[in-house]
Amino acid sequence: MSDSLDAQKSLEKFGDDFARVKDEVLKVIVGQTHVVDSVLIALFAGGHVLLEGVPGLGKTLLIRTLSQALQLKFGRIQFTPDLMPADVTGTTIVVEGEHGRDFQFRKGPIFAQILLADEINRATPKTQSSLLEAMQERSVTVGGVTHVLEPPFLVMATQNPIEQEGTYPLPEAQLDRFFFKLLVGYSTRAELTTILERTTTGKSASVQALLDAQQIMAYQKLVRKVSVDAAVQDYAVRLTLATHPKSEFATPMVNQFVRFGASPRAAQALILAGKVKALLAGRMHMVFDDIKPALLPAMRHRMLLNFEAEAEGQTADGILENLLETTLADIRLETQTVESKK
Q1: Domain containing 283: what range?
Q2: Are 178 and 301 in contact (CB under 8 A)?
């Protein structure tokens, strides 16, 4: 009985803390509620986020505000074409001491808990690759010595989808390490009015620190404890396999427009994001509907479209929405067939 009471208290506390952090961020960020929700889901699932949008939409401000509300060490790297890997990870330098010269490692800005990789696609592939080990292993190796990053470690990267000159598209291996790719859109008329009122009148909102690293890691462990029924897990598996051309579950649009489908990390993202959604709904078990909201942000950057898709103006989001409808229809048909045979 006590275990069930503790679980219920944890559920309620998680929901309350999630809402409090969200409200605190929205004191500064106007609109973009879905983006804020998704960033927090990725945080509690332990994943990195790529924010894509034109300049001036509040991507950098969102990340900085989030770090203030979470009492986490904040680091920022402005990615430019001349940025070197050592500028990210740090380097070993020679220091003159009492006993002669000594080698010391000077940490780079990557040694943070929330790292803002601003305009990440402006750096060369060599520099972009300096993030790979940190994103996957939560560690940095310099001069043969491995340095473990302080948990929780979250990379929040931004990129501009419009400018092509002086940019380097992220390699697929790096894109795959982002839990979510979120598209930041323009503000509405009412939102833009609110932005002007907040930023041109001398008023500034103060952000209160609500959660610390220990609380966040405790919630990340709670997320892993959410149970997943075999049918729900198979649903995530089918959605992932359906993005693979010529596979058993591939849709006609996937076969026509997709070169390569999503990796197993996509299925992991669907399940972990679904577990967070389940907690927010007050449940310690997932249902089918918990997976749907994560489909586009978890998979849009993990699919490689072919030339025909580009020529016909097809997008990853459009293909994924069709995939979701088709897969759901197939599952309903299979269920009806099984029930009719009973």
Answers
A1: 226-342
A2: yes
